[in-house]
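HUMAN: Quick job: go over this next protein and say how the chain folds.
***
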Amino acid sequence: MTGAAGARFDPDRLDDQAHLTDADPSGMLRSVASSAAQVRAAHRAALEAGVGRLGEGGRPRAIVVAGMGPSGTAGEVLEAVCGNGAPLPIVTVRGYRLPGWVGAADLVIAISRSGRTEETLALAAEAVRRGCPILGVGGPGSPLGALVTRAGGPYVPVGGVPGQPKATLWALAVPLVVAAAAMGLAEADEELFETVATRLEDIAHRCRPSSDSFINPGKTLATELAGSIPMIWGTSPIARTAAYRLACQLGENAKYPAIWGEIPEVNHNQIAAFDGPLAGRDIFADPFADEPGEPAARLRLVLLRDLDEHPQVVKRRGASVRLAEDRGVPVSEILAEGVHPLERLASLVGLGDYASVYLSLGYGLDPTSVSAATELVARISQ
């Protein structure tokens, strides 16, 4: 499959150690491998910043997370970890304005890896004007840190994390889970964070660059995704969050589009694509329409499965797989590992992060390059 830059996926690149080094000059693979260290460092930083004292004044009416990109995903992580039993709503806002109902009874958590994201700064400033208690997570010595500190809220500095913001999800999300534990919304102690870090270390070992493709789950998933249009479905709130994260990482790292959703909702809309023009093998396709060996992209169903699924979701998942296979849509299934929701989420996100980087490197693309996003910022700032 040939893209705008003429990129073509070559699976042999994934076992070429020289290529993996040369094509990843900013070390995105190393950044992904830092996930376990991020968990440990973020847990310590959150405690040192006083996040553990947030529960002393009682629970807020609602929690509103303000953030863009991976920072916004941290809000999804918080909501998924707290689960359906949370006694208050957890809302993630991505934009410039807070909902009208947000007020002094609600906790606003403003997150920005750089501490300079314009949307997040606008939301944080609005929260302060409305008298909301506020917690900040972001770059040290940043405008966001100054704003939150002046408002009297705790601020967790995220420093010393290698790579770009898209590789620092755990540094951003762990302080939120610490806050949730302090307010009695989730069970999370030092032992849990060490368990999550150990899980991420295991994934890093299995997905390491020197591990051959036939035993490396990250490289295997990347190869399966190549040349397809992925439909990534989660089977629970945990898996839905991982599906969203994978779709975002495919877009940022591999410059690759993906569709995501959660069962049962996708069974009411996206599943209709199984009967569409991109499903299965097109027997009427013109063999001269594309370059030799590069057939048109077709659908692939990627199921991110959780250990905690609603009984009806279990039925729908099985039926969805059979429908896909009957129509020639290949299926990849990934099962979460671990017991605690945060550990299960980490197992899915960790593998997906590696797959997105390997997909980029298989196409010969630099996973850290975001030239279109940079150009957009330059254009709107003129």
Remarks:
- Residues 11-30+204-371 form a domain with the Rossmann fold fold (CATH 3.40.50.10490).
- The chain has a mean pLDDT of 92.
- The chain has two domains: 11-30+204-371, 33-196.
- Residues 189 and 210 are 34 Å apart (CA to CA).
